[in-house]
Amino acid sequence: QSEGTKERISQMFNKIELSVSSYDTAWVAMVPSLNSPASPYFPECLSWLLENQLSDGSWGLTDRHPLLVKDTLASTLASILALKRWNIGEEHVNKGLRFITSNFASVTDEKQHTPIGFDIIFPGMIENVQKMGINLHVRPTALNSIIHKKEMELERGTASNSEGSKLYLAYVAEGVLGNGHDWNELLKYQRKNGSLFNSPSTTAAAAAQLQDINCLRYLRSVVGRYGNAVPTAYPLDIYTQLCLVDSLESLGIARHFTSEIKSVLDKTYSCWLMNDEEIFLDISTCAMAFRILRMHGYDISSDVLAQFNEEGFSNTLAGYLKDTGAVLELHRASQFVLPDELYLDEQKSWSSEFLKDELSKGSMHANKLSECISKEVNVALKHPYYANMHRLENRRSIENYDTNNLRILKTSYRPINFDGKDIITLAVEDFNLCQMIHRKELKEVERWVKENRLDKLAFARQKEVFCYLSAAATMFAPELSDARLSWAKNAFLTAQVDDLYDGGGSREERINLIELLEKWDGVSATDICSETVEILFYALQNTINEVGAKAIKWQHRDVTKHVVEIWLDLIKSDMKEAEWVINKIVPTINEYNANSYTSFACGPIVLPALYFIGPHLSDKVARGHEYHNLFKVMSICGRNYNDYQGFKREAEEGSFNGVHVLLHHDTDVSTVEEAGIKMRAIAESSTRELMKLVLQTKGSAVPRACKDIFWNMCRIFHLFYANTDGFSSAEEMIKDAKAVLYVPLTIPGEMWE
Fold first, then answer.
1. Is the Cα torsion angle 501, 506, 507, 508 positive or negative in sign?
2. Residue ranges of the alpha helices (H) in 87-162?
3. Collapsing DSSP states into helix, strand and coil, what is residue 415?
4. How far lies 144's CA from each of 147, 153, 180, in Å?
């Protein structure tokens, strides 16, 4: 069943089909022929209107949402205007008028969703209907009220005189007919494809007034693509395909469609390099393309986003409309910041404030149509990209997924070849399948703890669930089982070893463990000084040998020696810190930094797991500068967050960390809070540097799949340590563990209604 679902989703990439718009088709139908002004230029659109009136007399989407009556009223009135323009379809007109009369109260209903420009366009069409001598059978006071509202809206736009207001008035030009509109002035917004704003209705209104050959060329191309009707925006291929890619990635099922996604991104990148207007004249498309292309390692500059500071955004159409969706995309894009891209920091700051303000107003919670964007905003603010784990992100996306895919511009539309039910079905099945595998692996880790007697170490933290959680939540695909088990077991062992060197063992035991690892082969009972060391050494030896044996299948070489060296590096760095504590020595900042990124203990967790990700890692690459630099920058980020958040706990335990070092040696730091500010700045700088290293392709020898593991660990640091000492505070992680490992997902019943 899932294979059939995958095939249907794969087919969604082949061709973008948007639902046609009765509203825009009506405006195209009103364009007169150049040679015979008494005849329509597009008679096929007129025929479509005659054939597609709904049974209640309206025009619009057949499965109309109850909160989209304004949308339907606009589509119906435009269709009536088109039919009256050519004096045909009298019965259709009368049925349409009856629908408008009986639903007119919705025009002023604040609960109804208002399409873009409705308060100008709908009254403008009413004025045209009145000029044609048509009686709407609506009270004059009601008509005067909405016409007055239109005048107020026009006055607001004109008084503003900002570029954003000019763009808005141009976009809704069809609603300003007969108001002294300078139609030639509109052509300064004409795009290379001949359209105005990629909007068939705006372009048709201009074509009817100006007979502009480029407007007509655009309209012919749209009608040619869709047959005898048009969508509300064209082209929207890049945006729509990127939305599909984004959905599959956020739902955790993108790995099933790698070739299809690569094809979309290659095409998008090509369009980006050619400065395609479809990308660069739409903020949402531009920001989403930047984010997804950068995330996938395409060499792409953020300079294009520099124009969208708060003032720059306000001078756009989206800015004038206070388009929450566009700001959300800018906010998401701003998180893919590299060193020296300070304007993305500013963008992140103002977009965050904008989104918080919109949430606080409650307007996004007003109805079901707004609820989806409200949830997306809430998630984006609470869980930024760099402080998230894949599986938590996937679960939230699945729980909030909108199968309807309805979007609204001047009128509502949806991609008709996208089946949201197929997508969510695969996502839920895939999540639950992976979760079942993860639970089995967790039981294996728990058995391993007991078999190696690690539960007998009274001084050590027993964190097998959380050690496994970080593996399952980032490397969740079934085929990465070896990587997850290596990660979880080594993570558990690092906690035990760390506790031994943090005061759980004697100096003799600490030295003895190092000696045993250095000897490795031929260790006998007489070489071991205590039961604690015996338990730890044999657990290490068994686990490292297991990793080495499994890695042969993946790497076709023995990596055991390298894994032993990784462990020795960690234990020796732990020993150095233990000696500092025992001898009451506060190392210099440089001494501490040179040791602390290794003692942070990510080496044995991350580095052996890379052998099980898939790509071949030669010994040269695994011991090379790039590989080590990725590890170092990642660890510096985690170390600084951990030191600040764990300062109080470690001080109570008689240990010390980077906060003590700064307080002792840095003349600019006199309080814990000042140390925290400095350490956060280092962590954030390291995060950007790591992103740069991960995304870098030129001269890079480390495979991207391996780099992603370094980045995923960095995201875990932000999640665990940015606001609390998460690893040491079990209650902070229990909820996440349940979500990833224990609670299966279900498909909401209303999805099938």
1. negative
2. 90-103, 118-131, 140-160
3. strand
4. 5, 14, 20
- 480-530 pLDDT, tens digit per residue, is 999 999 999 999 999 999 989 988 899 999 999 999 999 999 999 999 999
Q: How far is CA 321 from the centre of its chain?
A: 23
Q: How far apart are the first and last CA of the chain?
A: 21
Calculate mean pLDDT across residues 231-251.
Answer: 97
Report CA-CA distances (Å) from 635 to 75, 581, 596, 686: 58, 22, 9, 9
Q: List C-alpha distances in Å: 328 to 277, 287, 318, 378, 391.
A: 21, 9, 12, 10, 22
Residue 638 has which token pair?
């985690």
Enumerate residues 6+ apart whose C-beta is below 8 A from 102. Answer: none
Paired residues of 40 in beta bridges: 32
Taking only the tens place, the pLDDT of each residue in 361-372 is: 865 544 556 778
Contact yes or no for 357/346 (Cβ under 8 A): no
For residue 339, what are its two tokens? 């060193």
The answer to whether 291 and 336 are in contact (CB under 8 A) is yes
CA dist 119 to 108, 122, 194, 413, Å?
10, 6, 27, 19
Report how far residue 83's alpha carbon sits from residue 223's, in angstroms, rounded to the nearest whole number.
18
CB 232 within 8 Å of CB 24: yes
Mean local confidence (pLDDT), 289-308: 96
Contact 570, 598 (CB under 8 A): yes
- CB atoms under 10 Å from CB of 284, counted, come to 18
Q: Could you give the angle at which helices 464-472 and 730-737 cross, rounded to 10 degrees?
A: 50
Give CA–CA dist 58/385, Å, rounded: 44
Q: Determine the pLDDT at residue 720.
A: 81
**pLDDT at position 31:** 98
Largest CA distance in the chain: 108
The predicted-structure confidence for 170-219, as pLDDT tens digits, reads as follows 999 999 865 556 888 899 999 999 999 999 999 999 999 999 999 999 99
CATH C-level class of 19-226: mainly alpha
Kindly state the average pLDDT of the residues 588-597.
Answer: 96
Residue from 16, 5, 753 nearest 417 by CA: 16
Q: Is 584 left (phi over 0), alpha (psi -120 to 50) or beta?
A: left
* Block residue for tokens 């995309």: 329
| Residue ranges of domains in the chain | 19-226, 237-425, 452-739
| Contact criterion met (CB below 8 Å) for 409 and 233 | yes
User: Which CATH superfamily hosts domain 452-739?
Assistant: Farnesyl Diphosphate Synthase (1.10.600.10)
Residue 597's nearest CA partner among 677, 531, 533, 689 is: 689
Separation between Cα atoms, residue 31 and residue 44, nearest integer Å: 12
- Give whole-number Cα distances, 200 to 26, 103, 221, in Å: 10, 26, 11
Q: Residue 208: helix, strand or coil by DSSP?
A: helix
Q: Residues 59, 64, 67, 68: what is their CA dihedral angle, to the nearest 10 degrees?
A: -30
Q: Which residue has the tokens 């506060």?
A: 586
Residues 6+ apart with CB under 8 A from 478: 433, 434, 437
CATH class of the domain defined by 237-425? mainly alpha
pLDDT tens string 614-634: 999 999 999 999 999 999 999
Our CA angle for 303, 304, 308, nearest 5°, is 105
Q: Is the CB of residue 471 less than 8 Å from the CB of residue 532?
A: no
Report the pLDDT value the prediction gives residue 653, as an integer from 0 to 100: 72
Cα-flanking dihedrals φ and ψ of residue 413, to 5°?
A: -155, 165
Same fold, 19-226 and 237-425: yes
